[in-house]
Amino acid sequence: MSDQYLYVYGVVERDEIDLEMEGVEGATEVYPVDYGPFSAVVSDVETLEPEETDENSRAHDEVIRAVMEGGEGRTFVPMRFGMVFKNGRTLKSVLREARPAFSRALHDLDGTVELGVKLVAPEETSIDREAVAEDVSERLSAASVGEVDNGLFSDRLVFNASYLVERESREAFDEAVEGIEDDYGEEVTVQYTGPYAPYNFVDIEIGAQR
């Protein structure tokens, strides 16, 4: 019989979670491990070091999205890919030790999602990059509660940022992006992605206890 370990996707406020969907390493069930006010979202795996393949990465993201969108929408504190625990006892030990950090994160992120916006220019353009980036940042900041600059890692990038947006303000943020597309769409390509779990707005460092 193969060893069974717990792959952890992240933490939500304590809730009933039962998803029949494919998880990391071909897992067929996603379920909660409860501790105090938290539910860690997990599935069973047979390795302590799952490979970060495209398939596994996609499964990781799809599970998180499904949990976030379940019920009336859950606040999700995500784990980075590859967090595996030997058993429920070691996982609960980490939840106990990091309880203040998880409580703070769930409070700070309550009712929010992460959305991404990039503006990509053609190779030859006369657009005023600085002015456009400043205008876009002002518009999107007004419709969000947090912003992270993700850097211009390509010469064609004019703007690249992630935003923390309250679910109830999603329509206003969508409208802000539409306005940007209306004003700049002939000069740049606007890439609008999400919703994601708020990876860029979580700062919890833990190690898998094995």
Automatic annotation (TrEMBL):
Major localization listed first in the record, in broad terms: other
Compartmental location: Gas vesicle
Cellular component terms per the entry's GO annotation: gas vesicle
Keywords on record: Gas vesicle
Pfam families on file: GvpL_GvpF
Family named by the database record: Belongs to the gas vesicle GvpF/GvpL family.
The name this protein goes by in its record: GvpL/GvpF family gas vesicle protein
Taxonomic source organism: Halomarina halobia
